[in-house]
Design goal:
Distance between the termini: 46 Å
CATH topology of the largest domain: Umud Fragment, subunit A
Helix content: 10-25%
Shape: elongated
Order of helices and strands: HHHEEEEEEEEEEEE
Largest sheet: 10 strands, mixed
Number of helices: 3
Structural class: alpha+beta
Number of domains: 2
CATH class of the largest domain: Mainly Beta
Length: about 200
Amino acid sequence: MEPFESLTPRQSEVYSFIRQRIRARGYGPTVREIGAQFGINSPNGVMCHLKALERKGFIRREANMSRAIQLATEPAHDRSLPLAGRIAAGVLHEAVEQRERVDFGALFDGADHDLFALEVSGDSMIDDQIADGDYVVVRRQPTASKGQIVVAVTDENEATLKRWYPERNRIRLEPANKRMKPIYVKNARVLGVVVGVVRKVA
């Protein structure tokens, strides 16, 4: 990675914004979000900054994947994970970011920058031993196998915690609660796959 002095003032601002977003919510901003933050109307204008940051070794990008900006180098955060917000284990809710961190000690490797935490709100996953108030640890990835527990986000930016079942012309988001019905959506993307659950007991 080149020294920070190699960045233009605007490139430095864009990099700081990307880093803040990744630290705060566990995943990077979209091109549209970056454009809105800095008043850049053209997506090509944003892409020029991203390409420069990638060329200079500050970020990595995966082609054709939403929110696929990653920091090329970043110090470990010891024993904590970013608390990206609350995730609905029930009906769909708007995805809302938070800017905190949760210390899980030695349970999970905080140096793994693909992990983040979400506090569960609702009881649609109780049959999978995920209850209201629990924390789920999520590995950020854009794909999931059929039946995996995922954080899914719809085109309306609504997020939910469900089992992932892609079907022919829709996606079935299946709860783990016999009293609840599946949610069917035409389009949704996987934000990450649940790899652990942490419960605080009194």
